[in-house]
Design a protein that fits this description.
The complex is a heterotrimer of chains A (271), B (283) and C (386). By secondary structure, chain B is mainly alpha-helical. Chain B is built from 13 helices and 2 strands; from the N terminus they run αββαααααααααααα. In chain B, 73% of the residues lie in helices and 2% in strands. With 386 residues, chain C is of the alpha+beta class. Chain C is elongated, with a radius of gyration of 25 Å. Classes of the chains: A mainly alpha (271), B mainly alpha (283), C alpha+beta (386). Chains A and B meet through helix 1, helix 3, helix 4, helix 5 and helix 6 of A and helix 1, helix 3, helix 4, helix 5 and helix 7 of B.
Chain lengths: 271, 283, 386
């Protein structure tokens, strides 16, 4: 019977997908369990269970400063990226102007250019113009890196926006500025929020370029974590990773509930 | 009222950022053509030496390895991501879709260090794989999995998977379901419907995904650095060693320029190779 | 054209060959029920489609006609009931083994294939030789009068051309049943009308059993051999267009197909076959049918088509009195809207082919309206569900 053959296909397909998703989740599960190992090595499965690495990770000074620096850099970078990217996406959607496609291509090029090249570039540039390796360089570098994501996210939202709302407002007497503030922006809010969130997560976790442009006092959390792994082999980093994973997953679940990740990432069918 | 009321205000910041990026890239280009002055961050006069040095087998080797690893990763990721993207789009239950989506994309947001470190816990001598094989009695001494190309590729596939799933799912979700129905009404079973209709129509997504996977993998750093441990070197690792460890900015710059040129060349080739495939997709 | 009426190309997985039942029923539905969560899309639907006929499933949106079509195609499974195609039970047969041909509302032509490849798709799935495929494709395109566009992609064709390609694609595989899901709704009016004629001619020529879904009752009336009128998941009436128009079995069918006036009247006398309806100065004879069980002097609703109402001067004896409200000139006839309290909705539509109707009955004139012709019907009033 062909209905049972269909069923076999479905079951096989489901198993394959579960296996692949298992592969995706495997490192997170393993590192979670390894974080509880009492011994001072990264081993699986743990022979004895302990919270000490969590305590150590949370107390480590470099992780503290890394976290703080990360927040500063991310806060500035994602907000600036949102403003710049959002504004440019608007102009991209609505206006025709000279070099439009060229500027867009340049802004999107950071998707293709390796992060180490961008990091190296800003490092040398800063040195050349005599700028100290402080936060401004790091922030500008991060803005350049996350801008494409913000641009795409806001652009997609603009494309899905029904212009007739704006036309109605204008017809009722609102100036372009008022239309923007009272109609366009509120309607774009999910797209803007999603874009900002995406930029923030990517910036906070960015490693390669940050490795080049940050200095000892500005190092972000990923850089601090990397430096730790190079020196120590204990599971502190595993503990930190677990905290990371839990926080990220929670954030994404909340984001999906409120913003609908499927729509944001453009994976939902448009009917 | 002007037809473009916010033009200047909205475009100017974007232009500034574009200029910043261009300035950084120009700096790299500039430094690649200048001589290395040991012990100083300044560069000397104009020279091609940094590029001719690339032709040494040691460095050429790294470039070839990087291309090979990137191609392999892109291909494997496509194979693994497609079923997930397909399930994501075709499953009906909202809960299932959300579960698949969040599970698939969470690695993307963990950051390179956490992700790579987790793989060390899986692949290390005391890690998951070895413990499992030892427990099952299949081996009596731990296998050396870390610091091999296979380990690096596995971890890189893991990194690239979320992006590929998103791009494939985006393409698949925009295919009108009536096409599959029409194919079935004409006598095509589920497998032939997929091969002759669904997969060809997903081509734009496949090409976009493979291209992005290749470009991303080419510039990978943390994964080969930590999992490769010096034995598996990609371009990024070389740039780091020379640029930050030795402060040989000019050579690091030339490596970057060469790497970028190679990426663009490879992408152009990929486009040419997939041009006939593009014809299969919708116009 | 010859290859399309020739023997059906061998289907790789078909079991029983030709239908064995001598009645010539191509599609048989018995007691089909389908529910989506809370919604009862189909309730105990029973239908027999004769081989070679063109049957239309007609009804408003939400009536279940598309559900029924998708069920016959195999894209939906019935919760209960039996479905047979050519005498063979197909409840568990997947769509790709039912040997149906389907034309979708948006045509669903494969965008990555040329028109010829689209048409030949079904034949390639049946593993016909390349030359045979080419021959049959050419015949099919000639049948829909589209020879010459073989190599064009769907996006390079007009809406009407796409529609024909979709038709050719469904016909070339010599399906047991041709299913059309509102295929003409995307076309403009003049194109629609000419396509209706063409579809009817092709269907006649090939003798292929056809099921046509539409919400447009004039389309149904002009195309069909028989119509199945559906509402709210049920099949209300099956019959020829004339049957449906002149002898609707219930109020819904009477009001859905064609324009109709409803007048509140009283039952005069009633026996087994005929009843008399009293309305003003007129007595109208109707078939008893739905009025069985009613007593003399019970209220009854009289259903009259616009072309069977006549106007007279205000003083003359008539069924109802009214005032002319609007004229709508239609070329071949004039539609006059007459305000009349006795009518359901407060006004009547009178259709007159008299050339001087507009001057004879100007707006604002008081008129008498009376029923002519023998095709009036009566149903019990709305409160008692028919």
């Amino acid at each position: 019977m062909s209905r049972s053959r269909q069923r076999v296909l479905r079951v096989a397909g489901t198993l394959v997908v579960i296996a692949i998703l298992g592969f995706v989740v495997l490192p997170a599960l393993v590192v979670t369990l390894a974080a509880f190992n009492d011994k001072a090595i990264l081993a699986f499965p743990p022979q004895a269970w302990s919270w000490r690495w969590f305590a150590k990770a949370l107390a480590y000074a470099d992780f503290h400063s890394g976290f703080g620096n990360g927040l500063i850099v991310t806060g500035w970078a994602s907000s600036i990226a949102l403003l710049v990217g959002g504004a440019f996406a608007f102009a991209l959607d609505r206006y025709a102007f000279a070099l439009k496609r060229t500027i867009e291509a340049i802004l999107l090029s950071s998707l293709i250019i390796p992060h180490f090249t961008i990091g190296l570039g800003f490092l040398i540039l800063a040195a050349q113009i005599g700028m100290a390796r402080g936060f401004p360089v790091v922030v500008v570098c991060h803005v350049v890196l996350v801008l494409p994501f913000v641009l795409k996210s806001v652009y997609v939202s603009l494309r899905n926006l029904d212009r007739r709302f704006e036309l109605a407002a204008a017809g009722l007497g609102a100036s372009p500025g008022r239309v923007l503030l009272t109609v366009t922006l509120p309607l774009l809010l999910p797209g803007l929020a999603g874009g900002w969130l995406l930029a923030a997560i990517l910036s906070f976790n960015e490693f390669t370029a940050s490795l080049f442009v940050t200095a000892q006092r500005t190092q972000t959390l990923p850089v601090a974590m990397y430096n730790y792994v190079r020196e120590y082999a204990d599971p502190s980093l595993a503990a930190l990773s677990v905290i990371y994973i839990a926080a990220t997953a929670a954030l994404l679940i909340v984001a999906n509930a409120y913003l609908g990740l499927g729509k944001l990432l453009n994976v939902e069918p448009h009917r | 009222m002007t037809p473009r009321p916010f033009l200047r205000v909205f475009v100017a910041p974007g232009v500034l950022m574009a200029l910043a990026l261009l300035a950084a890239m120009a700096t790299v280009l500039q430094y690649s053509l200048r001589a290395y002055v040991p012990g100083s961050l300044e560069a000397g006069g104009f020279t091609f030496a940094n590029f001719t040095a690339l032709l040494k087998p040691l460095y050429a080797r790294v470039f070839l390895d990087t291309v090979a690893i990137s191609l392999l990763t892109a291909a494997l990721t496509l194979l693994v991501a497609y079923p997930v993207a397909y399930a994501l789009v075709h499953r009906q239950s909202r809960l299932t879709k959300a579960a698949i989506l969040i599970t698939a994309i969470t690695p993307l947001f963990l950051g390179e260090v956490v992700r790579t470190y987790s793989w060390m816990a899986v692949l290390g001598n005391n890690g998951f794989v070895n413990s499992l094989l030892l427990a099952l009695g299949l081996i009596d001494r731990p296998l050396q999995i870390m610091f091999t190309k296979a380990a690096v590729v596995t971890a890189l596939v893991h990194v690239t998977l979320p992006v590929m799933v998103i791009m494939l799912a985006a393409a698949l979700s925009h295919i009108d379901p009536n096409y599959a129905k029409a194919a079935q009404s004409l006598g095509a079973g589920p497998v032939r419907t997929f091969l002759t209709v669904t997969f060809p129509l997903s081509m734009p997504g496949v090409i976009a995904g493979v291209t992005t996977a290749f470009a991303w993998t080419f510039s990978a750093f943390a994964t080969p650095q930590l999992i490769g441990g010096g034995q598996v070197n990609m371009v990024a690792n070389l740039v780091y060693q020379l640029g930050l460890a030795s402060f040989n900015f000019p050579f690091a710059a030339s490596l970057s320029v060469a790497g970028l040129a190679l990426t663009l060349a490879a992408l152009a080739l990929l486009r040419l190779a997939t041009r006939p495939l593009e014809k299969l997709g919708p116009p | 054209m010859s290859s399309l009426t020739a023997e059906r190309p061998p289907h790789p997985a078909s079991l029983a060959v030709e239908a064995t039942d001598g009645e010539g029923i191509a599609v048989s539905l018995r007691g089909i029920t389908k529910t989506f969560g809370e919604v009862h899309a189909l309730k105990d639907a029973t239908l027999s489609v004769r081989r070679g006929e063109l049957m239309t499933l007609l009804g408003p949106s939400g009536c279940g006609k598309s559900t029924l079509l998708n069920l016959i195609a195999g894209f939906l499974a019935a919760d209960q009931g039996e479905l047979e195609i050519d005498g063979r039970r197909v409840n568990d047969t997947p769509p790709y083994k039912r040997e149906i041909g389907m034309v979708f509302q948006n045509y669903a032509l494969f965008p990555h294939m040329s028109a010829a490849d689209n048409v030949g798709y079904g034949l390639r799935m049946r593993r016909l030789a390349k030359q045979e495929v080419a021959r049959r494709v050419a015949d099919a395109l000639a049948l829909v009068r589209l020879s010459g566009i073989e190599d064009r992609r769907p996006h390079q064709l007009s809406g009407g051309q796409q529609q024909r390609v979709a038709l050719a694609r469904a016909l070339v595989i010599s399906p047991r049943v041709l299913l059309l899901d509102e295929p003409l709704s995307a076309l403009d009016r003049s194109l629609r009308a000419s396509m209706q004629v063409e579809i009817k001619e092709i269907q006649r020529q090939l003798g292929v059993t056809t099921l046509f879904v539409t919400h447009d009752q004039s389309e149904a009336l002009s195309l069909s051999d028989r119509i199945a009128v559906m509402f709210d998941g049920q099949i209300r009436q099956i019959g020829s267009p004339a049957d449906i128009y002149r002898r609707p079995s219930d109020r819904f069918v009477a009001s859905f197909v064609g324009d109709v006036n409803v007048l509140r009247a009283r039952l005069g006398s009633v026996d087994a076959k005929t009843a008399t309806i009293r309305l003003g100065a007129q007595s109208v004879s109707v078939a008893t049918g739905p009025l069985a069980g009613s007593k003399p002097d019970d209220p009854a609703d009289l259903f009259v088509r616009p072309e069977q109402l006549r106007l007279s001067g205000a003083g003359e004896p008539a069924a109802v009195q009214g005032t002319v409200a609007t004229h709508i000139y239609q070329g071949g006839h004039v539609d006059l809207y007459v305000l009349a309290p006795a009518a359901l909705g407060g006004r009547l539509l009178v259709r007159s082919s008299e050339p001087d109707a507009i001057t004879r009955w100007p707006v604002g004139a008081d008129v008498g309206v009376w029923v002519s012709g023998a095709d009036a019907l009566a149903f019990p009033p709305q409160e008692q569900k028919p």
